[in-house]
Each structure stands twice: as C-alpha cells, then as structure tokens.
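Quick one, T. Sequence first:
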Amino acid sequence: MQIEKRLEELGIEVKEAVAPVANYVSVQRAGDLLFLSGAGPVRGGKASMTGRVGEGVSVEQGYAAAREGAVNLICALKGALGDLDRVEQIVKLVGFVNAVPGFEAQPQVVNGASDLLVEVFGDKGRHARSAVGVASLPLNIPVEVEIIVKVK
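Structure tokens:
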C-alpha cells in the first residue's frame, strides 16, 4: 500500500473510476499491459473545466486539467488492479490538448499529468510521451490523457 500512502500524503483521494460515456471500457488488459482510455477533468459525469487552451483557458489551467485527468486514470487503475503497488511502470502517456490554432505549448499543459505520475509512482511513473494539439474534445474539456501501464 505504498502508492496509496503516497497519494494520501499528496492529498489525493482515490474515488470510484469515471464510468465510460460510450461503447468502450476504461481499462483493457493485454498480457502484462493495461491500456487506459482517455480521461480528463470530469467529476460526477460532468466536466469540471471546459474550453480551449489559448482561448479562455490558460496554460496553467490546462496543466491543472491534465493533472485532474491523471487522477482519474489512477482511479481507473485502482479499480482494475485493486492494489496500485502492482504497477511496475507507466510505459506511455498520450495527451490531447484542445487548443486554438497555432498553440505550441502542448508539452507544458500535458506536464500536469506527467508530473503527477512521477510524484505518485516515482521512477515507475517516468514514461514515454506524446503531447498533441486537437481542434476539440468530448464535453469541450481542455485536455484528455491516456496511459499504457505495465503491471506485476
């Protein structure tokens, strides 16, 4: 329960995972890899933040939204594994940033998720990553993140 203790120290409450909003599953296992569906700043089935980065949403707010998405991914992991100490490595993170044309700070926004994963999992949280700008996202959220995780 080392990871859950770390979450408690960070003041992060692991709640029930956000339910899928369409015809997919939140977590799919293939061997020792878990593929997690995209997550964003959603609480109780509703977006807690909306808008486009660079137009009403700052880079700092986008960072916070990416961090909240990563918390939701951790909740999904907990639901799938029961014990977060079974995480061997966060292998890959992909971040999608709902941004205005010409926006180039996607990496700074997606750092919200990356930084949290390293804070929580230490070196096991270091990952390969892509940060991509997109024209829109579901529920008009500013950021969506997804991860691939190797488990014990």
